[in-house]
Amino acid sequence: MKDYLQRMGRSLMLPVSVLPAAALLVGVGNWILRLPGGVAQSIGNFLAFAGNGLLGQLALLFAVGLALGMVQKKEAGAVALAAVVAYELPVNLLAPKNIAALMNIKLSAVNPAFDALVTNNVLLGIISGLLAAAMYNRFSEVRLPAALAFFSGKRSVPIITAVLMLLVSVVLLLVWPPVYTGLVTFAKLISGLGWVGAGLYGFFNRMLIPTGLHHALNSVFWFNIAGINDIGNYWNSTGVKGVTGMYQAGFFPIMMFGLPAGAYAIYRQARPAQKKRVGSLMLAAGIAAFFTGVTEPLEFSFMFVAWPLYVIHAILMGLSLAIAAFFHWTSGFTFSGGLVDYILSYSMPLANKPYMLLVQGVIFAILYYSIFTFAIKKFNLMTPGRDPKDDDDAANDVQVGKAATVGGEDKYLRTARMVWSALGGDAAAKDNLTYLYNCTTRLRYKMTDTSLADVDALKKTPGVMGVNVLDDHQIHIVIGPDVQFVADNVEKIYNGELSSKLENPLSADEVKAVDETPAGKEENFFAVANGSLLHLEHVQDETFASKMMGDGFAIEPTDDDILAPIDAEVTMVSPTKHAIGLRTESGLEILVHMGINTVELNGEPFDIKVAVGDKIKHGDLLATMDIAAVKAAGKLATTMVIFMGLSEQAQVKVDDEEIFDGIAGNYVGRVIF
Known about the structure:
Elements: H1 2-11, H2 13-16, H3 19-33, H4 38-55, H5 58-70, H6 79-93, H7 96-103, H8 113-118, H9 122-139, H10 156-190, H11 194-207, H12 214-222, H13 230-236, H14 251-268, H15 275-292, H16 296-302, H17 307-326, H18 339-346, H19 355-378, E1 405-406, E2 409-410, H20 411-422, H21 425-432, E3 433-438, E4 442-447, H22 455-460, E5 466-469, E6 474-478, H23 483-494, H24 508-515, E7 522-526, E8 531-534, H25 542-545, E9 551-557, E10 561-563, E11 568-573, E12 579-583, E13 589-596, E14 606-608, E15 615-616, E16 621-625, H26 627-632, E17 636-644, E18 651-654, E19 667-672
Antiparallel strand pairs: 1-2, 3-4, 4-6, 5-6, 7-19, 8-9, 9-17, 10-16, 11-12, 11-15, 12-13, 13-17, 14-16, 18-19
Helix pairs in contact: 1-5, 3-4, 3-15, 5-6, 5-9, 6-9, 6-10, 9-10, 10-12, 11-12, 11-17, 14-15, 14-17, 14-19, 17-19, 20-23
Protein name: PTS N-acetylglucosamine transporter subunit IIABC
Domain PTS EIIC type-1: 1-388
GO biological process, one term: phosphoenolpyruvate-dependent sugar phosphotransferase system
């Protein structure tokens, strides 16, 4: 379920990225509408209509975005059509006028719940997108008898989705009205609780946003459902100063200050490889929240991938409304709680000490930043930019020269084709592979049955350093720092973008002979940290202990400084900061791997002191590793130095008698290659 919610949250980034621009158009348009003159009215309406045209289709955008993001195949553009079909069916079927016709009643007698359901309700968008993706994953390759062949494969998905959405519509027809009515009743009950009721309203207002049921609460407090009419009375100046506006004022500190500060915390905690992308999204979403009060781009960015953070946000929203109501600080909005509405409402007769909302906003900005930062780090929440699976630009961290070829074929593509063949080839690999992912050095694949993989063939594949079958459904194929290039090619073969056929079918022995370099060069290497020398076979990680990735040595460090083991150039820094790649002038590739399974710590205990392209000498500081934090997380701090891609003739000689515990930078041994 956790993985599913994280995929769902990542999928929402596509439609969410559209919203900040739309919100700014609406905000600027509404501000211009307050200016005198016909030209201003025309320009304001033009901008506002354009922005509302997108915001008014938020649910549909969610449906399409979720469907595209949740499919397991990248060529699944047809799923977007299925998502539109899934969304439009209940929107039209359950529209109030159609409900009136179905039940043979007057339109005025239709439960208002149905209008809230079909009017840009994100719940319908989410259901539609998830259902369309599930049906595509299940039926996009189904084959029907010849007479029905036209409807085979992808064409069957919209039809199946529509049928299932009919059933969902029947369920909503029966369930939605009593749920909606119950919430309206609940809202009426808490409306008599004063500032406590305002706080409860703020909390549930945020918590119900994913379902669309927050409209039920809003209708009670903002409009004339239960005699409150907070928005209407505020702008008509017919209420009580210090009271009217109490269900609006507390939104301003959160939307203008709190959430933008939370966005900054999310950016600060993003992984280095993703900071640029996440920064753009958070900046745009933060500006939209501050100026216009449109917070959906921010909220949906972490609502599912880090739901505990969203609960914290809802609690803080309730606290903000309660504080403003308790001190009788009031203000109001016509659109939402952003700067534009704050300025417009500031001089209204019922505004009471609205400047105090700015003071409250600064306090909440500090709270949001501090609490978000603590929660993200403490509980390792997968906010945008924190998930290693999203390191799409990881390859940019590696210096890439002209690709080597074997038999006229790119060596990475050749390795990918041979891996594909060993996993079952065109006949079985596509059906057997259920999840394709890679870390810094390994292909990490999930399969329906790992016994179908030819492990012996994988081990003999040029470019493959080792294979680790974890269980019946998971297999790790060790490639090394160049894993990204092999992974990309395997994925292209999987998607049908590249042929799986070897262009020059040399034997594995012949290919391996091409890659091997006769022994003759020699490099000395040195201790990377204070601590005890450990031979690789004693390392508590099978991948390193079996020397799948290459020969080398390890250190059990006693302090945090990690030094360079050799004179070299930095070629790679892992997005999770736990591994650094080096290359000597003689062509020797080295991997310095800090800790065991520390990739799961998302870079928290590490501080990298070098960058790709830096020229370093042995003994230079590469990084610091917070050993206490690593151990507190239940990981080992053992640091491995691996010499990668060595030929069978190469030798790694560790001179035990030359190593002295407690002295970093001491001579350890030499590699002959």
